[in-house]
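Section 5.1 Outputs to date
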Amino acid sequence: MKPHESITLDDGQVLSGALKDLNHYEILSLANQLMRNNRKSEAQALMGYQYTKFIKPKTPPRAA
């Protein structure tokens, strides 16, 4: 998704702006739509991105 591009999902939800600005729910919705449209590699890339951004636990700093 290009910055300032708008995408209307099947459910009527409109996503706009840069990918980095979308919330967790919006990224999951977009990934699900891509999967339904047989765009598996793009959907999987988004799932990896949302995992890294929202799910992956932050590791504590290592002791010196």
